[in-house]
Amino acid sequence: MNEMEFSQKIDDLGGTLYIVGGWVRDKLRGVIPKDKDFVICHVKEEDFKQNFPKAKKVGKSFPVYLVKIEDRECEVAFARKERKTGTGYTGFAVDYDANITINEDLYRRDTTMNSIAYRVRDEKIIDPYDGQKDIKQRRIKAVSYHFKEDSVRALRAARQACELNFNIDDDTINLMRECKNEIQAEPQERIFNELQRALKAKRPSIFFRNLVKADLLNILFPEIHALIGKTQPEAFHPEGDAFEHTMEIVDLVSDMTDDLAVRFAGLVHDLGKGVTPKEMLPHHYGHEKTGLDVLKSWNKRMTLPKKWLQGGLFVIKEHMRAARLGKVGKIVDFLLAVEKNPLGFAGFNCVILADSKSLPYYLADYHSYLQKIHSVSMNNCPQNLKGKAIGEWIRNEQIKLFNQNIEIEV
């Protein structure tokens, strides 16, 4: 069954089939749309089940069915209205009878750009809240005051702003601000999901800057908010305080890699600066140590992916040492440590390059140095050596070969 055949069957039942949400928004933006979400109006659920017996019901609080359309299982929902009855994303009463119109369904959605429907039978755009105008003006705007009834919509707006490089209008920022009390009770999984999606964007900094505007960053990500106002030596950081520096780094790292763990490491590399005592400013002595506890505390509140946590801890601890090492023995140890860290050289180097604007020679050419280091084998170890002496011999040989590699390059 193709899409038009499905639409015709819905028409035969006296209803209308629409596509809604992101697919319509992206089509109007001129980019390749992704998955389609269908909405049916003016059809009773009993009639639908009778005519589509193979459709699998997956919705709990309201009818959502999986229907196979053109060899893909697509979500098909019944038009619905919602009434706020409690707190959180579960605090809604849902009505989904056959009399609900597409305009009523669209009204319950978050922003105007996501409240546009595409009528399948004749490809007509249904846009009762001027979403097309806001798309053209690259503006995120709430459909109504109902926006604030699901507090995670505030996070979603900030995330979509950085995904699409749109601005959020002032009235919507104010509605986001009104989500402050309720959003504190939201499951951390929902908040992490929006963070993860924001880090996938080209410029994740837009996400955090909009949360600052809406006075939500201190509630949702207090570790990042603590960087605001933490001054730095101007000679090294003309961009401004630790927050401005962090926003610059996370965007620069995002230009270099799609690896979310590396982008997160760029975001958290200077977390320790957020707890620097005022009397120490603009210096941040020891922030590579204090930052470890800050990230561990974040992880207690919001369980982070293992690679994110381990990579972030390694970068916090080691990012200051990279450019300072001079003794060959310490450089050899450092290279072996970077090799074992979950981000690898490619990820670690992204953060160092973004932060320092250059790489020390041993990181820039780590392949050749590692090759020399790993060429040392226990098989060549003098037979009279035992225990710790074997490890010492291996390390000395690695240092010797490292020095030879430097001499060859010079």
Number of alpha- plus pi-helical segments: 21
The global form is elongated
| Uncertain segments | none
Gyration radius, to the nearest Å? 27 Å
Largest sheet: 7 strands, mixed
Termini separation (Å)?
Answer: 69 Å
Number of strands: 11
Q: Which CATH class of the largest domain applies here?
A: Mainly Alpha
How large is the share of residues in beta strands? 5-15%
CATH hierarchy: architecture of the largest domain: Orthogonal Bundle
Structurally, the number of domains stands at: 3
pLDDT averaged residue by residue: 89
Structural class: alpha+beta
Strand order within the widest beta sheet: 3-4-5-2-1-8-9
The helix content, as a percent range, equals: 40-55%
- Please name the CATH topology of the largest domain: Hypothetical protein af1432
